[in-house]
Amino acid sequence: MKLKVYRGTALMSESALLDLPSGLAAFFMDLHEPRVPAVAVASGPCVYVYKNLRPYFKFTLPGLEVNALEQDLWQQAREGQIDPVTLKEMLESIRKKVDVPLSVRSLHFLSLETEDMDDFLQLHKQQPIRRQTVITCIGTLKKSTADDDGVSCLVIGTESCHVYVLDPEAFLILSKMTLPAPPTMMDVTGQFDVEYRITVACRNGNIYVLRRESDKPKYCIELSSHPVGLVRVGKNVVVGCSDESLQSFTQKGKKLWKAVLPAPVTTMASMDLPARGFQAVLLGLANCEVQLYRDKNLLSTIKTPDVVTSICFGRYGREDGTLVMTTRKGGLMVKILKRTATFEDRDSAPGPPLAQSVRLNVPKKTKLYVDQTLRERENGAAMHGAFQMDLSRLRLAAAKAYVKALESSLAPMSASLTEPLKMNAVVQGLGPSFKLTLNVQNTAACRPVMNLAVSFLYDESLYRMRSPYMRIPLLVPGLIYPVETFVECTSDKGVSDIIKVFVLHEGKSSPLLTAHINMPVSEGLTLN
Amino acid sequence: MGLFDRLAGWLGLKKEVNVLCLGLDNSGKTTIINQLKPSNAQAQDIVPTIGFSIEKFKTSSLSFTVFDMSGQGRYRNLWEHYYKEGQAIIFVIDSADKLRMVVAKEELDTLLNHSDIKHRRIPILFFANKMDVRDALSSVKVSQLLCLENIKDKPWHICATDALKGEGLQEGVDWLQDQIKTMRT
Fold first, then answer.
1. Which positions bind Mg(2+) (chain B) (predicted)?
2. How many pairs of residues across A and B have Cβ atoms under 8 Å apart?
């Protein structure tokens, strides 16, 4: 256990500590020139103050009230009126029923084996018994000016649920406040002589706000999970919780926002750059990252080689924006903020995209539109019914036509399984003589089709055909067979008609497929 | 050097050169410039420069006008306004400040990448200052930390100096003078 002081990149001094430290604070304790700050180290019930790298002063918190019965018992033991076994029994009974707890010495005595009791009693019975509390957290509070080098008071939180404010010069207790639970962390703002706020996170998972001239907390913030870090940003409190969240509250306890973190919080600190008017919160996370949040927006992430256990941002040597971090394995890292660094808000909160708020140039509503909308609103059900009925009718008509086409093989596609055929027709020429080409294809996978014929049906007063009936050769699957014939238009009145083409199977009267050819108007003149 | 220049030299009319003196705060810029001035014009107390100050001194053939810029963080954005006028740069480094060597490198990189400097073949003289301090880095180490070997398109030179005693300054100024002369001819 050592107190180490670094300067630049080198260790400057080391002093051994007597007990495990629970907190550390640097402060100015007097106005003497040159201004030398002091370092206060809290351990056990004492605050050790170091100045000029040497121990300077030790302050011990006042002892707590001792149980009168316990005191009597030890008095009797000292005078030899009771033996250790009786003392133990009596102490046990006090421990169980009385509300003032036993001293550390009595508790230690109770934990001993019978043979060791006598030695312990002989060793300790001459000293009076005392009950001491333990410091859990420490902070500083400016005395009367807000200057950077103003004199500061020490603020101490103890296991006995008290918060003390100490005078920096005489180390008198200026103020004593009581909390409902032992404090674990605190953040102090303001000046002792003017007005101040002590925000304390307690072991019962609540945060209390203490004010001047009140020895009880004024406001209480109840958290859903235990606080791990506590920082004040402006008038709000930002808390890192053990459920991997970062929450912000007003000092009256109203919740402002909550951000979900990628890993559990290990430590928190505020990042304050008054020259730029920048305030943010630094969070050390268990996944070896340090994240910087302004409000609930993540601004920056620093990857670290190890889990960061404590963070401090401020002036180090001549650099104002320095971030000092310690890691779990005992490393010390220093990062300096670039002069040209900019912090841009990346709003990570899922919400409507920016484009959504751009106003569209919607034209004004016309009277027709309004009337139509009104009509639709009033007769909505009827209109829907009429539409659905028409749609059903349309579907029925389509289905009927399809069935009819299938039944009479009117389509140019044959659906029969034994002779699947496809046909299209092409008419070439200007007239009066046209060339008619039928492309017939067998669409079966491997089976050829035989014994097919083509027959034409037409108005004989209009057209004359060279061969109105033709046989089709064997159709090999996949190949397209062109079947050609010539049609002559006998009319010169500029009319046209439909020629129907049937593909037939020999020995069957119903066609396999049918095609209707819309003949073009004959534009040429017959040479008679 | 033409005949006229030599004549001007005899007559005491020396060529004027504008030099920028840059570097972090507390690196010793003002102390160095103070040492280069004639002994009767030297100031006794050196205080942190605010904004900048203009100093003049002469060498055997040139008359230097030095813009001694303040190195404090809040004044460093003034530097770039003087890049255009500067015909040479003196960059001072506190060799004993290992922690802020990264800051010096950052400022040097910003300087070298500035549009007024980037495409000019402007000589840069580095003073690795405060060699008298016990834990000071050597000039070789300083040039490694600042990655000076990456400066390919500009003549540069690094000198280990102790501005309080004035050691090493003359060597650097001589180099600078030679560079400016070769640049002109």
1. 30, 49
2. 35
For residue B22, the chain A residues in CB contact (below 8 A) are none
pLDDT of B5 reads 58
Tell me the angle at which helices B169-184 and B29-36 cross, rounded to the nearest 10 degrees. Answer: 80
Give the residue among A48, A29, A46, A45 at the shortest CA–CA distance from A37. Answer: A29
Q: Is B141 annotated as a binding residue?
A: no
pLDDT in tens, A223-277: 989 999 999 988 899 999 999 999 999 988 889 999 999 999 999 999 998 888 8
Check if the beta carbon of residue A308 is closer than 8 Å to that of residue A326.
Answer: yes
Nearest of A15, A369, B180, B130 to residue B139 by alpha carbon: B130
Q: Which of B77, B98, B103 sits opposite A319 (nearest CB)?
A: B103
- Domain assignment present for A524: no
Catalytic residues of B: 72
Please name which of A412, A377, A406 lies closest in space to residue A517, comparing C-alpha atoms.
A412
pLDDT at A353 over 80: no
Contact A319 B98 (CB under 8 A): no
Structural domain including A342 reads 226-347
The partner residue sitting opposite B135, judged by closest CB among A10, A317, A320, is: A10
Q: What global pTM score does this model have?
A: 0.67
ipTM of the complex: 0.85
CA distance B148 to chain A (A): 20
Give residue-wise pLDDT tens across range A291-344: 999 888 888 899 999 999 999 999 998 888 899 999 999 899 999 998 888 887
* Residue type, position A160, single letter: S
Chain B residues lying within 8 Å of A340, measured CB to CB: 110
Instruction: List helix spans (H) across chain B.
Output: 3-10, 29-36, 101-112, 115-118, 139-145, 169-184
Nearest-angstrom CA–CA distance, A373 and A379:
10
In the Cβ-directed half-sphere of A47, how many Cα atoms lie within 13 Å? 32
